Amino acid sequence: MDMTEDLGYALEMAEKAGDLTLGYFQRTSLKIEEKRDDSPVTEADRKAEALIRKGLEERFPQDGIFGEEFGEKPSLNGRRWILDPIDGTRSFIHGVPLYGVMIALEVDRVQQLGVIHFPALGEMFYAEQGGGAFLNGDEIHVSGVANLRDATVVFTEKEYLLDPESSHPVDRLRHSAGLVRGWGDCYGHMLVAAGRAEVAVDKIMSPWDCAAIIPIITEAGGLCFDYLGERTIYGEGLVSANATIGEELCREL
Question: pLDDT tens digits, residue range 194-238?
C-alpha cells in the first residue's frame, strides 16, 4: 500500500512507545497506581503516552490529541489523534504479552486510520481508510465463517459470562458459538481482523479503547458496532465481527 505521512508517523511512534513499554514489561519493581475509576495505571502507561504526545505535537502542532492518561488537547483543524498507550494494562502488569499500543487518527469525528502494536509479540496491525488492513506488512482479512457452530467468540470482561439469562443477541453468542475464549482487550479484536476469530466482545469501552480498532476491522472486511448496533466510539461497548456474522447480529439489534 502507499503509506501516507500520517500512517507512517503513527507506525513510527507506536514502535517507539512499544520499545519503551518493553523496558518495564515483566519488571518486578513496576510502580502501579489505581485511578479514580479503579483501573490500574503504571509508569509505563504514562511515559508511553507522553512520548507519543510529544512526537505528535512536534509533527502536527494544530492537531488535537485525546489520550487515556493525559486528557485532551483541542484540535485547531478538525483532526484529532486518540491514544491508548497500553491497552490491556492488567495483562501488562501480570506479564502477559497480549497488551497493545493504540494510535488512531480521527478527522471530523470519523476514524481514518488505526495502528495497534503488540510489542511483546512483535505484531503491528494497521489500516487507513480505503487502503486495506495489514499485519507486519501483509494484507489481512476477516474470516469467511458463516455458521456460529464453527465460530470462535472472544471476550474481555467476566461480565460477559455473569448474566446467563440475557437475551441480547451478542450475549446469546456464548451459547451457540463453537468456541468461546477470554482473549480480550485489543488483542481479541485483532484476532477477528486477522481471521483467527469471528467475534470479539467488549461490554465496557472508552473512546481510546475503540478508535484504532474500527478502521482496522473495517478495512479487513469486518464490522464494528456497539450494543445498539451503531458504529461509534462513544457507545455502549464494542463488538467486532466478520461480515457474515456481523450483519446477522446487526439485523437483530
Answer: 999 999 999 889 999 999 999 999 999 999 999 899 999 998 899
d(CA 74, CA 72): 6
Under a CB-based contact definition with an 8 Å cutoff, are residues 202 and 155 in contact? yes
Q: List the beta strands (DSSP E) in 136-231.
A: 138-140, 152-155, 179-181, 199-202, 223-225
pLDDT tens figures, 13-28 = 999 999 999 999 999 8
Binding-site members for Mg(2+) are 68, 84, 86-87, 209
Report how far residue 132's alpha carbon sits from residue 242's, in angstroms, rounded to the nearest whole number. Answer: 15
At residue 225's C-alpha, the angle toward residues 187 and 37, to 5°, is: 65
State whether 120 and 22 are in the same domain: yes
Binding site members = 68, 84, 86-87, 209
What is the C-alpha separation between 215 and 210, in angstroms, rounded? Answer: 10
pTM of the model: 0.95
Distance CA 187, CA 236 (A): 19
Report how far residue 181's alpha carbon sits from residue 152's, in angstroms, rounded to the nearest whole number: 8
Residue 221: φ, ψ to 5°: 100, 10
Residues 99 and 49 in one domain: yes
Last residue of a domain, one of 140, 163, 193: 140
205's grid cell = 469501552
The mean pLDDT of the chain is 94
- Amino acid at site 170: V
244 Cβ contact partners less than 8 Å away, ≥ 6 residues apart = 144, 145, 146
Place 36 in a pLDDT band, splitting at 50, 70 and 90.
confident
